[in-house]
Amino acid sequence: MALRRALHFVFKVGDRGKTATFYRDVLGMKILRHEEFKEGCKATCNGPYDGRWSKTMIGFGAEEDHFVAELTYNYGVGEYRLGNDFLGLTLQSSQAVSNAKRLGWPLSEVGEDLYLAEAPGGYHFYLVDKEQPPNDPVQKVCLAVSDLERSTHYWSSLLGMQVMERNEEKKTVLLGFGDSQCKLELNDIGGKVDHGTAFGRIAFSCPRKQLTDIEALMKKENQKILTPLVSLDTPGKATVEVVILADLDDHEICFVGDEAFRQLSIIDPNGNALLDKAMAEDKSNEWFAKHNKQKASA
Asked: How many angstroms separate the CA atoms of 141 and 121, rounded?
């Protein structure tokens, strides 16, 4: 499965301003592209919402060789309830640690050369206090599972990820599609996985011809397919095809055709300005304050 690669994790955000500060100023990531949509995504990329929303791709480098974050913002939704499903994203950057200290962003030392920072919305980011590598600094995403052996079988035998490390004491398994890619860590929490309303989605690419194979295999194995093969349009950009799955604990998984995704994910030099413009034009916070109301909590 060397042709498959880890792409991004989707985070729902309720405050784009504070979120942008965390990713840009604390972590040191760059806006890669920003897109606005008038109605909900056919593959529920923005969650179960059918109104206006935006997508911001942000990372340490181009999506073709970096694991990035997809920030989805639903206009009118101010916050989401966290579950216990997303356990953290780990990246290596002493600069990010320095940025957090300089800006007064709360940090907790949780290990040797390891700090925990909380993104707006409560998402956990683990910062390794070592020099940022020349390649992708993002090391792994950790997800909670209720049965480690069954989940390991799903991700390795059905989706083709390689088991790279097992830790019996911590009840974790590390998997990946390649040594140089961001890894997926599964952590057995010994109970039910709660996705809250903030639940995310992890995305991978594969050759377009494999999408039908993945869908057929999941049907054969009686596994969950949330969205069968569908085409997704982005105004003015490439149309991509995706299949959306759910694993044994209902973690959402997107597989997208690699060829079209490489066209869609080309860095937009105007991305930063487009996000700033969208935030400046979004008067929803002022409207709710003026009318003494609060944004909806999902």
From this structure: 17
